[in-house]
Design a protein that fits this description.
Chain B: It is found in: Cell inner membrane. The complex is a heterodimer. Chain A is an alpha/beta fold. Chain A has two domains: about 160 residues, P-loop containing nucleotide triphosphate hydrolases (Rossmann fold, 3-Layer(aba) Sandwich), CATH 3.40.50; about 70 residues, no CATH class. Helix content of chain A is about 40%, strand content about 20%. Chain A contains ten helices and ten strands. Chain A has a six-stranded mixed sheet, sandwiched between helices. Chain A has a four-stranded antiparallel sheet with strand order 2-1-4-5, covered by helices on one side. In chain A, β4 and β5 form a beta hairpin. In chain A, α3 packs across α4, α6 runs parallel beside α7 and α7 packs parallel to α10. Chain A is globular. Chain A starts with 16 loop residues before the first strand and ends with a helix. The relative contact order of chain A is 0.15. Chain B has two domains: about 90 residues, no CATH class; about 250 residues, no CATH class. Helices cover about 75% and strands about 5% of the residues of chain B. Chain B has a three-stranded mixed sheet. In chain B, β2, α1 and β3 form a beta-alpha-beta unit. The mean pLDDT of chain B is about 90. Classes of the chains: A alpha/beta, B mainly alpha. The interface between A and B is medium-sized, with 36 and 34 residues. The structure holds adenosine-5'-diphosphate and magnesium ion. The site of magnesium ion has 3 residues of chain A, from α1. Magnesium ion (MG) binds next to α1 of chain A.
Chain lengths: ~270, ~375
């Protein structure tokens, strides 16, 4: 691992995220009940599930935007709900989050968007921070002139790329992505999948990837976790998950779109 | 030369240690002292404890993009991830990175800014006139088709912008009425003419202050609300959605607001006149020894109803201008949060400015007409 800060309690083969018995509810509505999940170091874990099964809520409770109603979450060797404010912020600094709609700061241009965490957290002077920001933008495949553009003037694909650059600003150990390819054209989505794998290989982070996109699962994910009935039904390689005896899983992977995605992957592999 | 990150001895440079964002500044400083390393030097990269994108950027800068891209050929013993990282960063830095913002040139820039501002002002007024036309055209086309009037929306806006503003308008005009009465009493006492305080308060509130204060309050309170409401809808593409469904945003969103203002402002102006008079009357009774009956009698004797009508006739004009500016600025909002703020500010400033401008012109007109 190239980018990890090793704290004492952190072993190398330990999972980076371990969720156990997680409970989440909004008033009477229970979203998660006794949910277990593991994210291994360096892997890309695809999290799938029907709309409203609580994928975004799960992501938000791991990154600390929602306090869980029960259960434990261990991230990078420390138990989140036992940390004080300052320790928490130390851990959270090692997260990169890409929100469902990008959430770029609309009053800053792209270069300033990416430079902000570098200035605030890494205490770099503006000039250095903006230089590094431009490299990050180029790293995610945005042209140099985009650096001075404002979010409102960008296409959906560019917003996602810029948001990825911002998530990568501090070289996170764990990257959380909430439906990054939703709303992108298939070519843009495929390029994004490819980009994610390349960056993961180079930067060595682990990825928690919420998605509906079957092509993304085939192209980018090492393992897949299925959210259903308020818990994680199964976490395994795509092949094994697709064999799971569950109505939703079968419908999802073996319905018309599932077969199409599988077929297209199979044909690209056979061509190579 | 020897440091935590770089060792240089007899033409052999070696990089090591922790090349991360945390030490970015320190490493950069060290490298600056070192100057550039000549290509004749032998370079080894060995045992980086850690390496991230910031550190990799510094290395690529030091050795050059071309050499960095071939790093696996001459530094094969680096871990696989570090090699991959160096190559990726080198590729990213191959693109031209510097986007020079236009070179600053004080004098011409200042001139250009003035020009832009004037052009923007002109454009703004043109848009306002166009929008007024559009609203009027829609208004008249719907005038004789009552089934398309949006009664519910209009009433809701009357409540928000009219009814809910009654207390603040009443309080404000009451206090200004009292102040005017005090002022009048102080000046007129020297002439032994304190009784004319009544005329002063009545004239000023019926002709000017009642309607003007109400209009200024609504310009601050309602124009900004309209801009923020429509602006949020605009940035959420709700207005585009209406248009795409063949619905007219002017009819659905603007007209109810304009109608509500046309109803609210005259009523609020009336409330303002009354409560200004009450404020004046209170000062008159409490500190000038003028009784209420005397106050009312003087009003009836001295102040003709023309003044009331002159004052009230301005209310619909103000109402229309405020509502139209508020809505137009809302439509001009673009995606960013900053833009909502800028247009809200602009709508309040513009509508207060227009209200006072129109009031001044009207005062001239009414004076010349002898009304
Ligand atoms: N702030 C909230 N208040 C109440 N209910 C919420 C809130 N956020 C999410 N929920 C509920 O939690 C469930 C899961 O939502 P979410 O995680 O957004 O679904 P998805 O898997 O599509 O991302 C939904 O039923 C939603 O209604
Ligand atoms: Mg979601």
């Amino acid at each position: 691992m190239v980018t990890t800060t090793h704290s004492q309690s952190e072993q190398h083969d330990q999972p980076v995220i371990q969720v156990q018995g997680l409970v989440n509810s909004f008033g009477p509505v229970v979203v998660h009940e006794a949910l277990d999940l593991t994210l291994k170091r360096g892997e890309i874990l695809g999290v799938v599930g029907g709309s409203g099964t609580g994928k975004s809520v799960l992501l938000r409770s791991i990154v600390g935007l929602k306090r869980p109603n029960g259960g434990t979450i261990d991230v990078l060797g420390s138990r989140l709900n036992e940390l004080n404010e300052q320790q928490r912020s130390q851990v959270e600094r090692r997260f990169g989050v890409l929100f469902q709609r990008g959430a770029l700061f609309s009053s800053l241009n792209l270069q300033e968007n990416v430079a902000l965490p570098l200035i605030e957290h890494a205490k770099l002077p503006r000039e250095d921070a903006e230089y590094l920001a431009r490299i990050k933008l180029s790293l995610v495949g945005l042209p140099a002139k985009a650096a001075l553009q404002f979010p409102e003037s960008l296409s959906g694909g560019m917003v996602k790329r810029a948001a990825l650059a911002r998530a990568l600003a501090l070289d996170p150990d764990i990257l959380f992505l909430d439906e990054p390819t939703a709303g992108l054209d298939p070519i843009g989505a495929a390029a994004f999948d490819q980009l994610l794998v390349t960056l993961r290989d180079a930067l060595g982070f682990s990825v928690f990837l919420v998605t509906h996109d079957l092509d993304t699962l085939y192209a980018a994910c090492d393992r897949v976790a299925v959210l259903s009935q308020k818990r994680v039904l199964v976490t395994d390689t795509l092949e094994n998950v697709a064999k799971t005896d569950d109505a939703w899983v079968q419908e999802y992977f073996n319905g018309p779109r599932g077969r199409a995605a599988k077929h297209s992957v199979a044909s690209t592999i056979s061509k190579e | 030369m020897q440091s935590e990150w770089i060792t240089q001895e007899s033409g052999h440079v070696s990089l090591h240690g922790e090349w991360t964002l945390r030490y970015y500044r320190d490493i950069k400083g060290t490298l600056r002292q070192l100057g550039s390393i000549s290509s004749s030097n032998r370079l080894t990269l060995s045992g980086f404890k850690r390496l991230d994108t910031a550190g990799a950027t510094l290395i690529v800068e030091l050795i050059g993009v071309k050499k960095a891209k071939q790093v696996s050929e001459w530094a094969a013993d680096l871990p696989k991830e570090q090699l991959a990282l160096l190559v990726r960063i080198a590729e990213a830095m191959e693109e031209p990175l510097d986007v020079a913002p236009a070179s600053p040139h004080r004098v011409t820039d200042a001139l250009a800014t003035v020009g832009q501002q004037v052009a923007a002002l002109w454009e703004q007024q043109r848009q306002l006139l166009g929008f007024v036309g559009l609203v009027l055209a829609t208004l008249f086309s719907l005038l004789f088709r009552p089934h398309r009037w949006r009664i519910t929306a209009t009433v809701a806006h009357v409540q928000q912008s009219g009814l809910n503003a009654v207390p603040i308008v009443a309080l404000l005009t009451f206090m200004v009425g009292a102040v005017v009465a005090f002022l009048g009493a102080t000046v007129l006492k020297d002439f032994g003419a304190t009784i004319y305080t009544i005329d002063l308060v009545a004239f000023s509130f019926l002709r000017e202050f009642g309607v003007l204060l109400a209009a200024i309050l609504l310009a601050g309170r309602t124009a900004s609300a309209f801009t923020a409401q429509l602006g949020a809808m605009k940035s959420n593409e709700e207005i585009d959605a209406l248009q795409a469904q063949g619905l007219d945003p002017i009819e659905l969103l603007v007209l109810p607001r304009v109608m509500a203002m046309l109803i609210s402002l005259p009523l609020l102006a009336f409330v303002g006149m009354l409560s200004g008079l009450v404020g004046g009357a209170m000062v008159a009774t409490l500190s000038l020894d003028i009784s209420i009956t005397q106050f009312i009698a003087t009003l009836q004797k001295d102040v003709s109803v023309t003044h009331f009508l002159v004052g009230l006739s301005k209310a619909p004009v103000f109402a229309f201008v405020i509502a139209v500016i508020g809505c137009l600025e809302g439509f001009k909002v673009s995606g960013s949060a900053q833009s909502v703020g800028a247009h809200t500010t602009s709508s309040v400033v513009q509508s207060i400015f227009m209200v006072i401008l129109i009031d001044a012109l009207a005062a001239l007109f009414f004076m010349e007409m002898g009304w």
